[in-house]
Amino acid sequence: MDKRVVITGMGVISPVGNDVPTFWNNLIHGVCGIEYIEEFSTEKLPVSIAGTVKDFHAEEYGMDKPFIRKQDLFTQYGVAAAYQAVKQSGLKSTGEGQNIDPFRFGVYFGSGIGGFATQFREMAKMIDDPSGQWISPLFIPTMISNIAAGHIAIINQANGPCLDIVTACATSTNAMGEAFRAIKHGYADAIITGGSENATIPIGIAGFANAKALSRATDPKYASLPFNANRAGFVMGDGAAALVLEEYEHAKARGAEILGEMVGYGNTCDAYHSTAPRPDGTTQAECIRLALKEAGFDENKDNLYINAHGTGTKLNDAAETLAYKNALGDFAYKAHISSIKSMTGHMFGAAGAAEAIATLLTLRDGICPPTINLDTPDPECDLDYTPNHAVEADITLGISDSFGFGGHDACVAFRKSGD
Asked: Which CATH architecture has domain 5-260?
């Protein structure tokens, strides 16, 4: 028999806050975390703004100086988000107070790119000296995208299933979905899931900008413009987000606080283009339909919130709007929808998990965060995208969707515990 899957912990490192309460408070008040880049010179680069992480201190999340010195920021961000989530969950796999079998405790945690900054730094050394003698012996195990998952497992002694899913912008949504299935079908009792990214580096900006994906806006507070007629590309964002998914009876037996229930997952592929979404939204719609069907969506009973992928690119936002109409029919006009990327920028591999946390908090508090900067709605994007200000609503079902380069489509669905 299929198991129920609940959420017992959440953690986040983001451009709008490095803990869940700060992150949520800033989102519902429309605080934009996009700023001018200060970490390196952008004088010769085509883009000078991003949603970077601020005031991050890795030692506050249990990391010691040798670990911090050796690890790429994407790993540090991931470990920090997982630290928060596991602490809130109260799970412990070893020692006094052990409350989970370590072989039933897993990690499904991804990154769209991995140790990008490490790769950039070490490649520069190789160009200067092709002998390779100055390349760090830690280069490979610091750069590979699975290393955040590996360290999260090591720190938490999670000896169960451990996977690093890499599906570009859909990475952490797929990670959550596959973790959901692993618990639902009995392969684990709890899984730390999510994603992390640190791609705001010179080559990252140059690569995405030359692919014509990035906004070249010069005003950081009016740059990420999902569903706006003036949109001209996404804004880069960094950070990490983690959730602890747990089998319901296991969580109940140990008296854990249940933060919500995961009830659906859809996964399709556009099979269309390496970077552009399928323009008619049909494959994206099928992904959404799959998640809604598993969640038991009933348009006569449910008040639906959608945390949109909403990147602010011309092609994505138009195709995403068509996908909602295709999946929901006339009900699409009744759904509450918003894109928090208007405030965080696009956190790539971390985006889906951060947006899932926002979806869970929307269910908990009955507040839909806004899509800020939506002052000139695109006529092609004519749904209720919660412009500029948060809206109170008694939401019964929340979904979050992500669409990645390569055509990867993923959607996850949540209800309040007890719904």
From this structure: 3-Layer(aba) Sandwich (3.40)
